[in-house]
TrEMBL record:
Superkingdom, taxonomy of origin: Bacteria
Swiss-Prot/TrEMBL keywords: Acyltransferase, Cytoplasm, Fatty acid biosynthesis, Fatty acid metabolism, Lipid biosynthesis, Lipid metabolism, Multifunctional enzyme, Transferase
Protein name: Beta-ketoacyl-[acyl-carrier-protein] synthase III
Group of enzyme by EC: transferase
Organism field: Selenobaculum gibii
Key word NAD present: no
EC number per UniProt: 2.3.1.180
Span list, region ACP-binding: 254-258
GO cellular component terms, semicolon-separated: cytoplasm
Length: 326
């Protein structure tokens, strides 16, 4: 008998910093508004010649080093992203090749900002069933490439980055204790990139109509996030047979400090039990939870035996939460 848990974490943030002051020069916005409404001070952006797989590989290498695992020991790579290098092949296949993880199967998982937790749940099943021993989960995004830098409603929110975790068998009673996954496709239109797929393939018209950018109804997404973050975490805790008072650290999707504070309040958690880095990176979609997790590990925020809750929401609409015993 064994558990399935995280045996290594890593992240990578591009070097280029875009501050709120930089954005003031690009759109009609100001530092006070952005900080007050979102909690974001700056975000990282990849260079034009960098693709999502490039930053995914860096985060993956850091996670493999942390776990002490060689690329050829990986049985499966799941990449969670909404900004793959191209529609096909999958970003996971590109990452597999760049890592030389020659024994790994590879596929992408599309669940937007909930993608990392979805991927953890999927990956852990292969280990639990005995089919695989080591699964690499990478969540990486180059949202800057699908951001309309003339739209102040969205461009202030997003950033680029990558986070990764190696899953493997752990001591019984440790690792993943509870999971909650969910989706409500009726909210698809609130957050989407309309073109570039089979519905609206790329044409001069779709480009002219700015359909290859993130389109968002911020108020609707906000309302959904406020409701679902607490609910999802409660359900994952219930699945684990635990209560909010057992929680040592909450790692929420880093979309907006107001959404994070509201989730903490619903879960009756003081903010010193909540890991926050949205100020430095903005919303990096699927990458946000694993970047926060890897930073929290690096900064020694938790010790063996601590109960950690990951919770996120995103386009789809989707939500996901996972309870871990570290
Ligand atoms: N600078 C200055 N003013 C702005 C800006 C800006 N960057 N953006 C919007 N405004 C204006 C609006 O135009 C509006 O002006 P008006 O009243 O004259 O029309 C005013 O500010 C208030 O706008 P609201 O949308 O009501 O502002 P709100 O307080 O709701 O905050 C925000 C907007 C930050 C977008 C919020 O709705 C939010 O965080 N929503 C969730 C977004 C999110 O998390 N999305 C990602 C999900 S994860 C994924 O899958 C990628």
């Amino acid at each position: 008998k064994f558990g399935v848990g995280i045996i290594g974490t890593g992240y990578y943030a591009p070097e280029k910093v875009v501050t709120n002051a930089d954005l003031e020069k690009m759109v009609d916005t100001n530092n006070e508004w952005i900080i007050d409404r979102t909690g974001i001070s700056e975000r990282r952006i990849v260079d034009d010649n960098i693709a999502t797989s490039d930053i995914a590989v860096k985060a993956a290498q850091n996670a493999l080093a942390d776990a002490g695992v060689k690329p050829e020991e990986i049985d499966l790579i799941i990449v969670a992203t909404l900004t793959p290098d191209m529609v096909f092949p999958s970003a996971a296949c590109v990452v597999q090749n760049k890592l030389q993880a020659v024994n790994a199967a590879a596929f992408d998982l599309s669940a937007a900002c909930s993608g990392f937790v979805y991927a953890m749940s999927v990956g852990s099943q292969f280990i639990q069933s005995g089919m695989y021993k080591k699964v690499l989960i990478v969540a990486a995004e180059s949202l800057s490439k699908i951001t309309n830098w003339e739209d102040r409603n969205t461009c202030v929110l997003f950033g680029d980055g990558a986070g990764a975790a190696v899953l493997g068998p752990v001591e019984e009673g440790y690792g993943i204790l509870g999971v909650e996954l969910g989706a409500d496709g009726s909210g698809a239109e609130f957050l989407h990139m309309p073109a570039g797929g089979s519905l609206y393939p790329a044409t001069l018209e779709t480009v002219k109509n700015k359909m290859h950018y993130i389109h968002m109804n911020g108020n609707e997404v906000f309302k959904f996030a406020i409701k679902i973050m607490g609910e999802a975490a409660y359900k994952a805790l219930e699945d684990a047979g635990l209560d909010t008072k057992d929680v040592d650290c909450l790692i929420p999707h880093q979309a907006n400090i107001r959404i994070i504070k509201s989730a903490a309040k619903r879960l009756h958690l003081p903010m010193d039990k909540v890991f926050v880095n949205v100020n430095k990176y903005g919303n990096t979609s699927a990458a946000s939870i694993p970047i926060a997790l890897a930073e929290a590990v690096k900064e020694r925020h938790f010790k063996k035996g601590d109960i950690i809750v990951l919770v996120g929401f995103g386009a789809g609409l989707t939500w996901a939460s996972c309870v871990l015993k570290w």
